[in-house]
Design a protein that fits this description.
Blueprint lengths: L9 E7 L4 E6 L3 E7 L11 E8 L6 E6 L5 E6 L4 E5 L1 H5 L7 E3 L1 H4 E5 L6 E6 L5 E6 L3 E6 L16 E2 L4 E5 L7 E6 L4 E5 L8 H4 L10 E6 L15 E6 L6 E6 L4 E5 L26 H13 L15 H7 L3 H5 L22 E3 L3 E3 L11 E4 L5 E5 L4 E6 L5 E6 L5 E6 L6 E5 L5 E3 L14 H40 L16
Parallel strand pairs: 4-8, 17-21
Antiparallel strand pairs: 1-2, 2-3, 3-4, 5-6, 6-7, 7-9, 10-11, 11-12, 12-13, 14-15, 15-16, 16-17, 18-19, 19-20, 20-22, 23-24, 24-25, 25-26, 27-28, 28-29
């Protein structure tokens, strides 16, 4: 499926109305609502058609879009610093006709929020048609309630839930523990905040006293044992994070130029767990179940209320052993990763040094996360799998319980950024730098998009690319900051009103 004739990145994907709808948007600043068409005569088992197209009115790339629960409202965030809310009730309720219903900004937009002062990156919805959270590069997390409107720009915007001194790019929340949320960005730590601050004393529960003036309390930080090989101190960055909707306590953040890590909010602070790494299967040419078959089996098992069975077949050498045995090991690994005396990563600039640090249970590697801001996600009805995109156009899927690499699938012509599993079906939507949205599902015959048999060479190539691209990434960040500062100076000296967007703030630096 393709979002249309534009040639821009698809940054935003989300399922809505229990998977009946798929919401997409991106650099073309258009919002599209795709709907499943069970009456289609196509051979595709899961046919989707574009039912609605909305001109959002955003003047920069749209980074995230979500339909608010129990409503027909869609909230979007973009590089123009704005949060916009649209109502598509008439188009969603009408029968499928094969023709797209198009809306102008004036016809569909019902609210524009300008509370953030820098590029707004992610949205988190809750069990409400009026209530949602947003995070932005101004280091703030804001809570929006459409039932209580206010005039932005007059100094009357509600106080943010979080204000950190560094850019934020992701936020994660589990519906099982909605009073907690995790944020990540340009910091070596992901921070866990507790919203149960008002009227409560958290000393007994979290082992610390909340600050009197704060709306929320930072109760935990999540760190790594060491930096990735060649990772530059001071340029640590978390690109995406996800909390498990199945158990409410597992957190999976993706670190730029490094791996995806798995934490639990229930772990004791400072405990040095026996962290496991991605297990690389041998490249023996032996047949193996595709991820679509595994997800299909998981969904079938979930209908009977049975636990998903572990598959020990395919366990091979550890990634660390593989890298150590490679002929050009020095070229791949480079210098030893940096660590501090206590084995963790120190940051004297962190705003919450009193919050205890939790270390990972496991990490999942093999992909390359350097060029863009990549999300991370869980797959399966019990969140049995962890998945993330890669700079090589593939997305990787690991078994969460063991770290075993399940599959490597081609998801984009360039880079995969977003992977969203359907809430009830064994169906996965994937997007990235090119114009298309790919849907992955169980099918008869060989897995045509699987690169699992070439996993050894792919992981080796990605390890080399991560190291060589790291220095380039640092220089790009510096250039982007200089350019954005220059634009802000021009804006303030010329008219002080125009929202100029940095020319570098496109797909490559989203």
């Amino acid at each position: 499926m393709t979002p249309g004739p534009t040639k821009r990145c698809v940054n935003a994907l989300s399922w809505a109305q229990n998977g009946e709808l798929l919401i997409s948007s991106g650099d073309d600043q258009q919002l599209r609502v795709w709907r499943m068409d069970p009456s289609s005569d196509t051979q595709n088992e899961y046919p989707f058609v574009c039912q609605t197209v909305i001109d959002t009115g955003h003047t920069a790339n749209v980074f995230n879009a979500h339909m608010l629960p129990s409503s027909t409202r869609i909230a979007t965030v973009a590089g123009d610093k704005q949060v916009r809310v649209f109502d598509v009730g008439e188009s969603v309720g009408r029968p499928l006709s094969g023709n797209e219903m198009r809306y102008s900004t004036r016809q569909a937009c019902i609210r524009i929020l300008r509370c953030h002062s820098k590029r707004t990156k992610r949205i988190i919805t809750e069990d409400s048609p009026d209530f949602f959270l947003t995070v932005a590069e101004d280091g703030q997390v804001r809570q929006h309630d459409l039932r209580t409107p206010h005039a932005c720009g007059r100094g009357v915007c509600p106080a943010p839930l979080v204000r950190l001194p560094h850019e934020l790019s992701t936020i994660a929340l589990s519906p099982l523990t909605p009073y907690q949320f995790v944020v990540g960005g340009e910091s070596p730590f992901a921070h866990l905040f507790d919203r149960r601050h008002i009227g409560r004393h958290l000393q007994e529960e979290w082992g610390m006293s909340p600050a009197v003036d704060d709306v929320t309390t930072c109760v935990r930080r999540f760190s790594r044992h060491s930096r990735a090989p060649g990772e530059v101190k001071g340029y640590e960055h978390i690109t995406g994070a996800k909390m498990s909707a199945w158990n409410g306590h597992e957190l999976a953040p993706a670190f730029n130029s490094d791996a995806v890590y798995l934490y639990s909010t229930r772990d004791e602070p400072g405990a040095r767990t026996d962290e496991k790494s991605c297990i690389l299967p041998p490249n023996s040419g032996r047949g193996k179940q595709s991820v679509a078959e595994l997800l299909s089996k998981s969904h079938n098992d979930s209908k009977d209320g049975e636990e998903v069975q572990e598959d020990d077949e395919g366990a091979g050498m550890d990634t660390d052993d593989f890298l150590n045995d490679s002929e050009d090991d020095d070229d791949v690994m480079g210098d030893e990763p940096e660590s501090d005396d206590d084995g963790g990563i120190e940051s004297t600039a962190d705003m919450h040094p009193d919050a205890s640090v939790i270390y990972p249970r496991m990490h999942f590697s093999g992909h390359c996360n350097v060029e863009t801001v990549k999300d991370v996600n869980y797959l399966g009805p019990y969140d049995e799998y962890v998945t993330s995109g890669s700079d090589d156009g593939n997305f990787f899927i690991w078994k969460k319980s063991s770290g075993e690499l399940v599959d490597v699938l081609e998801g984009d012509d360039s880079v995969v950024n977003v992977i969203e599993g359907h809430p009830t079906l064994p169906l996965v939507a994937v997007s990235g730098i090119d114009t298309t949205i790919k849907l992955f599902a169980p099918a008869r015959g060989p897995a045509t998009h699987s690169k699992y048999r070439n996993a050894t060479s792919i992981i080796k190539r990605n390890a080399r690319a991560s190291r060589t691209s790291m220095n380039q990434s640092v220089h790009l960040q510096l250039a982007r900051l200089i350019n954005m500062n220059h634009q802000e100076v021009l804006q303030s000296t010329e008219d002080g009103t125009a929202d100029l967007e940095s020319p570098l703030a496109q797909c490559i630096s989203q």
